[in-house]
Amino acid sequence: MGEQVTVDKLYHKSWLKPLGLPTLLFVLYVPIGVCLLIIRAFILLQFFLLGYVLPPSKFRQKCLRVMSGVLGISISSEGELSLGAGKIYVANHITSYDHFVIHLTTNAIMPKKEKIASIIAKPFGLVEMDFESFSKEQIDSSKDTFILFPEGETTNGEVGVLAFSTVQVPVGVTIQPVAIKVSRPFLNTTAVSGKGALELLILLFSPNTHFVLKFLPPHTADEEGAWKQNMQSEIAQSLGLKATKLNASDKAEYLKRLYFRPPSLATMTREVQRKLAPQTISPELIIATLQRTGSVEATLESIRQSNITGGINPPPSTFSKSASQRMMTFQERKRIMIATARQKYIEKHNLTIPPL
């Protein structure tokens, strides 16, 4: 089943939904969205201040959740939150703020290796730590509950779940899977290029972004790592999605194919000329070689090899004063170069070969 899902099905290329009624409604909504964005930007500053000042507690959790509702985030949960301190929540990944929604619901934190400014980390439930180096004893003795996203990358949450391959959990640690579903009017919940700040602007602009958290029965990490595949399947099944064999690397390759634009022939020609300097090769010869090889490096190798073997005698780059020479086609100049190289080879080895 997983092989039937291609990577492009897991991502929206744009925030805008297909043309139709949603597009018309979005156009009408834009002025309201801009006003909401401006107002919520000021409220967001107060949210950061409150989240930074208040110590971790249920009171802080409720305050932040109320303010998040004003910012356009609504949350509903299903199932039993059966974990306490020293345990791990594992979830599918849709937006850059999934961890924040789980944090508002459970007070769990998300470990990050990267250095994070405390004024941003604390309100969003982030903490700087190398979680992969933690032992079972360290996790069990911790006062915190942790959030992990084993997919390693976001998806649109509409077709499939990426393979759980980016995290390691010590054997014996209790893990509870969380299935996340996100919905938003007018706009897609994610876009393949959307990250961080852009997603925040979309969130503040939208009338509402609704998160549904489904807490599934907990598991214990086993030595073989089978819990990853089991949890991936359980989360996918609870959301009506497919458990795929695709991973974060497949998304990276998809992004390369989607946004990579190969350099023009003129750009590659200049690059070859620059790397061959001070040697001068006619642009016509470079272009012909580029069209055959398709790359700068292969073209350089071909030209250098041809020069070594005497197969090419590149013409001077100066502009000819002779009108007849300027009118010669590339094929004619090519025949002349080949004939000249052939004659030099014959003379060098004292061969007696009748002319062609």
Mean pLDDT: 81
Helix count equals 13
Give the domain tally: 2
Residue stretches low in confidence (pLDDT < 50, at least 5 long) are 309-321, 324-328
Radius of gyration: 31 Å
Q: Secondary-structure element order, as H and E?
A: HHEEHEHEHEEEHEEHEHHHHHH
State the end-to-end CA separation.
64 Å
Structural class: alpha/beta
Strand content: 5-15%
Q: Biggest sheet: strands, sense, closure?
A: 6 strands, mixed
Topology, number of strands: 10
- Which bin fits the share of residues in helices? 40-55%
Shape annotation: elongated
If you had to describe this structure to a student in words, what would you say it looks like?
The protein contains 13 helices and ten strands. By secondary structure, the protein is of the alpha/beta class. It folds into two domains: 2-259, no CATH class; 265-348, no CATH class. The longest helix is centred in the first third of the chain and has 33 residues, at 21-53. Mean pLDDT is 81; it is low at 309-321 and 324-328.
Which helices and strands appear, and what pairs or packs with what?
Layout: H1 21-53, H2 58-70, E1 73-78, E2 88-91, H3 98-106, E3 110-112, H4 118-121, E4 126-128, H5 136-141, E5 146-148, E6 160-161, E7 174-183, H6 196-205, E8 209-215, E9 219-220, H7 226-239, E10 242-243, H8 248-259, H9 265-276, H10 283-293, H11 296-308, H12 323-326, H13 330-348
Parallel strand pairs: 1-8, 2-5, 2-7, 3-4, 6-10
Antiparallel strand pairs: 7-8, 7-9
Helix pairs in contact: 1-2, 9-10, 9-11, 10-11
